[in-house]
């Protein structure tokens, strides 16, 4: 009797362990293309990011689609520890994905003290690329493509990047 | 110490088994949790709030001018034109794959073939932009065979038809009808003629109907049951203004008839739609302007009841309703309409129940720009939802707290609107 009971116990434990292993494997798998559309951003439950980034909107209104445009981005260390190797990158691209021409700019700060705010100025080229307006010139083509500025800040030891995107007027 | 009895041992074992079973059941829930969440996808809050109202969710993200959405007959994928090339994606995933990668390809639309492949328009070199009265320029129709999860299937592209003027499939999917120009000489002064063809698959022979269609065909649609092609044709009357005709062709044998000849000065916007209660179309009076050109005033929804020879305004939408584009549902009983309640109100998606002639707003738009091109409106094959293209109204530079590829309302994006 005891032998039968022990056999039943071991069989059940083996079944449960195997099932758990399969479930774990299933949860690890997944096709990148089938990544679901993300859930609503529950920003209220997030911790405040240590590094914050700001693109002043009043500066954006003054930008023209020419070379030599100056744009200042503001960085702030909102945490209570020093941030080292703070990297700020700025990508300028056309809204037209058929002409994926990106102009990239990058600046690095060695250190940003707790509570410190600093401004980083970029001189950027906003002139239309030689191929960007191909479709616009067609009669009847309605898209007026805009420029997109994507700024990204990160620091060593701080796993989360801060990203801001600005869409300029066409 | 007292030795344990067999009954006590058995009771202990049963208790252990119950505890293990309960632990396993509760543990399984945590392992597979995310998969459950993937079933129901709520609206995304990246970027500005989608001001189209409840029951609306984005289907695409990131920069680019998107247009001409088409949901596959299986209801699992959606194809659309992105900046002149064509992409397809799983309906509720973010990632997509470009099917034609050449920049400046110039595609205007894509339609699903019955075998799951895609038919894509490609402009023909030297054809220009059509005439000034709204006749589309001829294009080539390319077949793209989709290879599972291939990232670039351009190698499997082949030509299905040339000199194509208009293309359409039934709202729920099926064979694709196309109108092909039959005029051999582009410089000829003779009246334009064309023929109807039927595409049943990318590798099946094309069915050509020999009967000629006189006059430039401006638009085409297929009835929900896939039996009829409905065409709008502009006939030159030899006077100042030409007149539009609405024709139907039976796709089984090519038998055709003229449904109606529209009054002088009335033009058709988009393709007429065959429904259970007659043919519906968006029409407008074209008036001369001071510059000598022609400028339509307002467009109204009209219906040609079965047996009638002339159009009548659809009363169910209201007297002041301004229609822009329409699309009949896969069951033929409803009409999706992009329009405005009156000239001063915002553009919204409405659904007209044809049996009761009642109009219901499917969106409550406040600040979105909804595209009004007739091709930018599509039904899900099961009739549960409609896809439209919109973006947030843009009044100046704006800053968003997300990468560009995660934004929806900042750019023209596809939106699903529940209407079922």
Overview of this protein structure:
- Chain A is built from two helices and seven strands, in the order αβαββββββ.
- In chain A, strand 3 (83-94) and strand 4 form a beta hairpin.
- Chain A has a domain at 48-128 and 144-167: Sandwich (Immunoglobulin-like).
- Chain A is of the alpha+beta class and 170 residues long.
- The model of chain A is unreliable at 28-35, 39-46 and 132-140 (pLDDT under 50).
- Helices cover 18% and strands 38% of the residues of chain A.
- Chain B has 420 residues and is mostly beta strands.
- Chain B has a single domain (55-418), classed as YVTN repeat-like/Quinoprotein amine dehydrogenase (Methylamine Dehydrogenase, Chain H), CATH 2.130.10.
- Helices cover 7% and strands 42% of the residues of chain B.
- Chain B is built from two helices and 30 strands.
- Chain B has helices at 6-31, 33-37; strands at 56-58, 66-71, 77-82, 85-90, 97-98, 110-112, 118-123, 139-144, 157-169, 176-181, 193-199, 207-208, 213-214, 217-222, 228-235, 243-250, 256-261, 266-275, 278-288, 294-304, 312-313, 322-328, 334-340, 348-353, 358-361, 368-370, 377-379, 385-392, 398-400, 413-418.
- In chain B, strands 6, 7, 8, 9, 10, 11, 12 and 13 form an eight-stranded antiparallel β-sheet that branches.
- The radius of gyration of chain B is 26 Å and the shape is globular.
- Mean pLDDT of chain B is 83; it is low at 22-49.
Quick structural gist:
Chain A has 170 residues and is an alpha+beta fold. In chain A, 18% of the residues lie in helices and 38% in strands.
